[in-house]
Design brief:
The structure holds two protein chains of two kinds. Chain A is mainly β. Chain A is built from no helices and twelve strands. In chain A, the strands form three sheets. In chain A, strands 2, 5, 6, 10, 11 and 12 form a six-stranded mixed sheet that branches. In chain A, strands 3-9-8-7 form a four-stranded antiparallel sheet, with no helix packed on it. Chain A is globular and about 45 Å long. The chains are: A mainly beta, B mainly beta. Chains A and B meet through strand 5, strand 6 and strand 10 of A and strand 4, strand 5 and strand 9 of B.
Chain lengths: 119, 114
């Protein structure tokens, strides 16, 4: 079974600065997808960015980018020019790419990192 | 607009009672999921369904039951057998077979045992 580890329960960043959230995962599969979700105080889960394992190029979405290191099984999220609205819980998630039967569609989540933004 | 609706937003249950959390989607998604969220635990999968009239247990199914009689609906019943039901419950859906898509989530239900 796949596992996802987020080793930083809490982090803080000054407004306008850059912060990196860490995520590592364990899998024996070669093809899969990785995601970062944001959960603000409203508790609505919002997809921030996704990465396909077979693509070497790191995904970017405006101020959000990832550093995907497949061999190291690492998938960190970088937030540039941090804003007050970035304050939230951030979850890293893994999803298999193959239809390997029951459970292959499910997302496996890490325990989350709570990000605070200091004005 | 398409989305997932969870109701109620807050739910209170007495000891020994069964309660049902509603989840409805109009995204025409085949797959639906129920997750439980506790502080410091992340999201843990309770049940999932890939097609109508079929569902599978997730990692923490004990004390819960589901049904999938319609594509749009995936209600979760928290039974009296669930020993610690106080938690935040999230429903999600996805396109079956499109693993890159991720999930669309509802806004959640906060269940409290009183």
């Amino acid at each position: 079974a796949q596992t996802v580890t987020q080793s930083q329960p809490e982090m803080s960043v000054q407004e306008a600065e850059t912060v990196t959230l860490s995520c590592t995962y364990d899998t024996s599969e070669s093809d899969y997808y990785l995601f970062w979700y944001k959960q603000p105080p409203s508790r609505q889960m919002i997809l921030v960015i996704r990465q396909e394992a077979y693509k070497q190029q790191n995904a970017t979405e405006n101020r959000f980018s990832v550093n995907f290191q497949k061999a190291a099984k690492s998938f960190s999220l970088k937030i540039s020019d941090s804003q007050l609205g970035d304050a939230a819980m951030y979850f890293c998630a893994y999803r298999s790419a193959g239809d390997s039967g029951a459970g292959s569609y499910q997302l496996t989540f890490g325990k989350g990192t709570k990000l605070s933004v200091i004005p | 607009d398409g989305g997932i609706t969870q109701s109620p937003k807050y739910l209170f249950r007495k000891e020994g009672q069964n309660v049902t959390l509603s989840c409805e989607q109009n995204l025409n998604h085949d797959a639906m999921y129920w997750y439980r969220q506790d502080p410091g635990q992340g999201l843990r999968l309770i049940y999932y369904s890939q097609i109508v009239n079929d569902f599978q247990k997730g990692d923490i199914a004990e004390g819960y039951s589901v049904s999938r009689e319609k594509k749009e609906s995936f209600p979760l019943t928290v039974t009296s057998a669930q020993k610690n039901p106080t938690a935040f419950y999230l429903c999600a859906s996805s396109i079956r077979g499109n693993h890159n898509y991720g999930y669309t989530f509802g806004s959640g239900t906060r269940l409290t045992v009183v």
